[in-house]
Structure formats: structure tokens, C-alpha cells
Design brief:
The complex is a heterodimer of chains A (about 110) and B (about 110).
Chain A (H helix, E strand, L loop, with lengths): L4 E3 L2 E4 L5 E6 L6 E8 L3 E9 L2 E5 L6 E5 L5 E5 L8 E8 L8 E2 L3 E5 L1
Chain B lengths: L3 E4 L2 E5 L4 E7 L7 E6 L6 E6 L5 E4 L2 E6 L4 E6 L8 E7 L9 E2 L3 E6 L1
The chains are: A mainly beta (about 110), B mainly beta (about 110).
């Protein structure tokens, strides 16, 4: 069974640009959550999608957005990139909408220059 | 109230020894407590998880001890091996917030041969 797939693995963007990251969950999983990981702030929850609906949102500015498609694949978008957005962005998938086992992808390393 | 505090920040253990990492939480609504292991360049991997109705859970060399009254839980790694050298994260979530995980700051474990 394939794991969580995130693309691309690495990305370099310039301040002010926007970026879209993609996440394909484990087959049969309907919930996708996104996290930002930085050395200073650790792992922070961005948002969660279940059945194409955003169920929960963390404390991030509106520049961070996401969506989920009918096949459970998810994308997150960051607009007007800032240097501080440089981080590892992780996607986790789980079977249902409750607090159950969550499996992470390898992440997308975003560098903003 | 949403924080999870993890200690120590770093830990050095001799091969064959016991590694112990501790976490504490404030929010009594948390009802799911997983531990993740992360190697450099990889996403976090789910190790073991516990719910508050159980005081201990063991899987191979990994044991979670849970103290509901003290609002603390810990990970014990028995017979620690150099291959266990990684960063470990505790986390907590609550059923009414779906897949949102609140993570501790992480513990960098180094097992010396």
C-alpha cells in the first residue's frame, strides 16, 4: 500500500510569489491535514480537510489556504510569500474525521529567497 | 491550554540503555496521545499511541506510560540502539477537533555505540 505522497519535494521561491503544494493521501483515507515544521516553532497545524470540507484551521494568516478534491487529494497554497514561510510542509492522512492514526508524507521543503 | 510540553530537548543514551522522554499537557479534553519518530529529511513516522483509558501500552521495545491525574505521559525505549537515534515528538488531540495534532517541541535522541 503506497504511503502519503507529497510533491514537489523541494521548492525555491522568491518573496512575493505564490506556491502550491500537493498531497496524495493513502488510498482509502479521507482526511488530510497540513503542518508547518520549522526549527523555531516546531510542528504547527495549518488545517484539516475531510470529504472536501475544511474541518479545522490553525492560527495562520489568510495567505495560507487549501482545498481537497473528490479523490481526497489535497493542495495547499501560500500567496505573497515571505522569508518566514521557509519551512518543511508536511501532509498527514487518516482514515476518518476523528482523532485516529495519522500518517505523514516526507514533506515539501520550501525555501523563500 | 493547547500546549504540550516535552522534555528533555536532547538526550544521549548508551547502546542497550533505556531512553525516557516525558510530555505534559494542560487540556483535559485531549483524548489521544501519539508518539512520532522523525529521521533527518523524512516525515514523522507514527510509533505508538495511547488513549486515557489505558495506563500503559507496549509495542516491542517502545512503551507509553500514561498518568491521567498528573496529565503526563512518557515514552520509554528499552534496549536503545544506534538506529533509534532520531527526533521524537509527542502529540495530543481531542475528538471534537478531528485530526488536529498539538505537538511537543521534540527530543533529539542520540544512542552511542
Amino acid at each position: 500500500k503506497a504511503g502519503v505522497t507529497q510533491t514537489p519535494r523541494y521548492l525555491i521561491k522568491t518573496r512575493g510569489q505564490q506556491v502550491t503544494l500537493s498531497c496524495s493521501p493513502i488510498s482509502g483515507h479521507r482526511s488530510v491535514s497540513w503542518y508547518q515544521q520549522t526549527p523555531g516553532q516546531g510542528l504547527q497545524f495549518l488545517f484539516e480537510y475531510f470529504s472536501e470540507t475544511q474541518r479545522n484551521k490553525g492560527n495562520f494568516p489568510g495567505r495560507f489556504s487549501g482545498r481537497q478534491f473528490s479523490n481526497s487529494r489535497s493542495e495547499m497554497n501560500v500567496s505573497t510569500l515571505e522569508l518566514g514561510d521557509s519551512a518543511l510542509y508536511l501532509c498527514a492522512s487518516s482514515v476518518g474525521s476523528g482523532n485516529t492514526e495519522a500518517f505523514f508524507g516526507q514533506g515539501t521543503r520550501l525555501t523563500v529567497v | 491550554q493547547q500546549q504540550v510540553k516535552q522534555s528533555p530537548q536532547s538526550l544521549i543514551v548508551q547502546k542497550g540503555g533505556i531512553s525516557i522522554i516525558n510530555c505534559a499537557y494542560e487540556n483535559t479534553a485531549f483524548d489521544y496521545f501519539p508518539w512520532y519518530q522523525q529521521f533527518p529529511g523524512k516525515g514523522p513516522a507514527l510509533l505508538i499511541a495511547i488513549r486515557p483509558d489505558v495506563s500503559e501500552k507496549k509495542e516491542g521495545r517502545f512503551t507509553i506510560s500514561f498518568n491521567k491525574s498528573a496529565k503526563q505521559f512518557s515514552l520509554h525505549i528499552m534496549d536503545s540502539q544506534p538506529g533509534d537515534s532520531a527526533t521524537y515528538f509527542c502529540a495530543a488531540s481531542r475528538g471534537d477537533q478531528g485530526g488536529k495534532l498539538i505537538f511537543g517541541q521534540g527530543t533529539e535522541l542520540s544512542v552511542k555505540p
